[in-house]
TrEMBL record:
Signal peptide: 1-25
Source taxon at top rank: Bacteria
Pfam families attached to this UniProt entry: DUF3280
Keywords per UniProt: Signal
Entry keyword Signal: yes
UniProt protein name: DUF3280 domain-containing protein
Length: 174
């Protein structure tokens, strides 16, 4: 059967109209994101200040943890997984090992742990580390000092930690 000249463009248009919805329905391939588990950030105070600031420090510690979960979860290369603890997360060697195993069981490839230490009214430090949940290998570790025991000082420290962690994962293939 010989097709008439005007039928060929109609058949091509019909075939194209069937193919376009199929292309739209095809799942997009998204780059895989590494999952980083983030338990609550720890805190200790050896400043010897007379006024009890535990409630303020607990609120800042929780805000710092939440900020890290949010900021790292917004990164293209990372997805964050908050790990809640019923009491302050234990950050000694045994506690970190349990957190690492728990993070791995929940599907995270990495674990971010950290602790803020208040040394005086003005000076604080924060040590944080990222561990590979499969091997326990240390991927990143930093010790930073920051000033101002107030919401802004803690926010600034959290933003720095998020940048350091995100930069260490930027562009890395899993």
């Amino acid at each position: 059967m010989l097709l008439r000249p005007f039928a060929v463009p109609l058949l091509a248009a019909a075939a194209l109209s069937l193919a376009i919805p199929a292309l739209k329905a095809a799942p997009s391939v998204e780059a895989a994101r590494s999952v980083i588990a983030i338990p609550e950030i720890g805190f200790s105070d050896s400043s010897g200040e007379a006024r009890n600031q535990q409630a303020e420090h607990d609120a800042r510690r929780q805000a710092l943890t939440k900020g890290l979960v949010t900021e790292l979860g917004a990164e293209a290369d990372l997805a964050s997984l908050p790990l809640a603890c019923t009491e302050p997360c234990p950050l000694d060697a045994e506690g970190v090992e349990k957190l690492r195993q728990r993070a791995r069981a929940e599907g995270a490839e990495f674990l971010l742990v950290g602790k803020v230490h208040k040394m005086s009214t003005l000076v604080m430090s924060m040590r944080f580390a990222v561990l590979d949940t499969s091997s326990g290998k240390l991927v990143l570790e930093r010790l930073l000092s920051f000033r101002s025991d107030n919401d802004e000082g803690w926010r600034h420290a959290g933003a720095y930690v998020a940048r350091e962690v995100a930069d260490s994962f930027a562009g890395e293939a899993k």
